[in-house]
Amino acid sequence: MNFPFEWQVGLRYTRAGKRRADTSQRNGFISFIAAVSTLGIALGVAALITVLSVMNGFQKEVRDRMLAVLAHIEVSGADGTISDWQKLAAEAKTNKEVIGVAPYVSGQVLLTRGDSFRGALLRGILPGEEPKVSDLGADMVAGHLTDLVAGDFSIILGSELARGFGVGVGDKITVAAPQGTVTPAGLIPRFRQFTVVGVFESGHYEYDSSLALIHIDDATKLFRQDNYTGIRLKLDDMERAPEVAAELAPVFTEPVLILDWTRQNRNWFAAVKTEKNLMFVILTLIIAVAAFNLVSSLVMTVTDKQADIAILRTLGAAPKSIMGIFVIQGAIIGLVGCAVGVLLGVILALNIGAIVSFIEHLFHVTFLPKDIYFINTMPSDLRLPDVVKIGLVSVILSLVATIYPSYRASRLAPAEALRYE
After folding, report:
1. What is the residue-averaged pLDDT of the chain?
2. 8-state DSSP, 137
3. What three-state secondary structure class fits 375?
4. Looking at the predicted structure, is the pLDDT value of residue 40 above 70?
5. Which of 147, 283, 354, 408 has the CA that lies 20 to 30 A from 158?
6. What is the DSSP string of 72-136?
7. Of 66, 10, 21, whose CA–CA distance to 335 is shortest?
8. Which of 41, 3, 18 is nearest to 332 (CA)?
9. Which is more confident, 285 or 346?
10. Within 10 Å of residue 307's Cβ, how many Cβ atoms?
11. Using CA atoms, how far apart are residues 50 and 383, in angstroms rounded to an integer?
12. What pLDDT sits at residue 412?
């Protein structure tokens, strides 16, 4: 082969040489340390790819389930109401990113049935317009959005809310609004009995357990409002919500408050981002530890190969060539570990849901209670940029680990090395 001799020697040193019986045990131990280093790098890379994929999947799953209920942008009146929702809708649609608009009325209420009561967010909607901005119509497990008819005082409950009250379609539930009636005895909340006509399940526990829907006209009567609270917008690209919100601000002719989905859940998304960055740093330390093992392996190899290095030097090999031999040896170990780790990590990331389900079924445990984590399955979102970044970090750490042992080998004096040979 026409490879430079540095490559030929470096490749040869990556294999355990056992030609001499008196050095076979020592060479075997060095090879074992090298194998441990390779395995450590592989496990670190695989763990990092898998964990980041799960965190990406968790973030995407929760975000998508949130946006099945929430609008990409909410526009509400500065005083809590808007005068003409259709005018605002027309102004909003001047932005090409806005593909859906629907009005809403929103308020906090107390739901009661028998001895049970629970606070909830009551949202008044137009059944014909709501599917333009949310996926609630597709999330119905009983009834339809069109079953909400103005004047019938009908209501649709989240699945957990309905389960908590033990109600289904056709049952009655009482809604208490804070806008009450002033009497000599004090302020008495307004009570109104509603008929359950549907149940939705978004997959997000927070909304399934605290959101109820009624017709928007019934909501204005219940809350004693003459106007609607605002409009909800759906965008072609939800990732551009902050930019679109800024673009819409000067478009509206009346004072409004604009809130996009990233601001509504800012603390949650910021916490996930911070956790993801910290997890990347922590798991990168696993690769760093494996890289330190690589340093040990190369130092032992340099010590074992002192006579070979001295002979090469006396034959005319330059110090940089000696250094290159051990850099190549360490780089090969790092690249093999990285390649194995990437392959293993990708396989785990793509099948983590099935693996976790198997473990849960085998040991009868639940890793993700949905009332705590919002979801009850292990999600995964494998992203190429993450894989590339992790691979580059592992290779760079492996190359850095070769610098000291290689430099030490290049500085070896041939006379000293051959003195006792």
Report:
1. 83
2. G
3. coil
4. yes
5. 354
6. SEEEEETTS-BS-HHHHHHHHTTSTTEEEEEEEEEEEEEEEETTEEEEEEEEEE-TTTGGGT-SG
7. 10
8. 41
9. 346
10. 13
11. 11
12. 77
